[in-house]
From TrEMBL:
This is Lipoprotein. The lineage of its organism: Bacteria, Pseudomonadati, Pseudomonadota, Alphaproteobacteria, Acetobacterales. It comes from Komagataeibacter europaeus (Gluconacetobacter europaeus).
Amino acid sequence: MKKVPALSGLAVLAGCASSPKDVKPTYIPDTAYSSMDCQQLGQEELKEGDTLEALTNKQRRAHKTDTWGVLALGVPLSEMTGSDVAGVLAREKGKMEAIQRMQIAKSCPGAGVAVVPATLD
């Protein structure tokens, strides 16, 4: 009988928003950016970096809210509030990887040394 509460607790935790660092990128083909030159790729990288940072922060908040919601109320709150953006975050991470792969393929200055924002952890 003691296993039932433990298993139901695991089920609740499984419904929690993922930590941003645990969200894996969705594959985006490099061809999505193949028509861009190095300058355009750099601009796109900056734009996507801002979007990625905002989504990472939103996902981090959803993860923390769920952690506290489960501890205090026994339910993850992000699903009820719609604050879990893991799917969108995964696509943005994939876009950033595709841009960086294309920069390397085109031998753009600084390609391969770009660091994904530190807020992704």
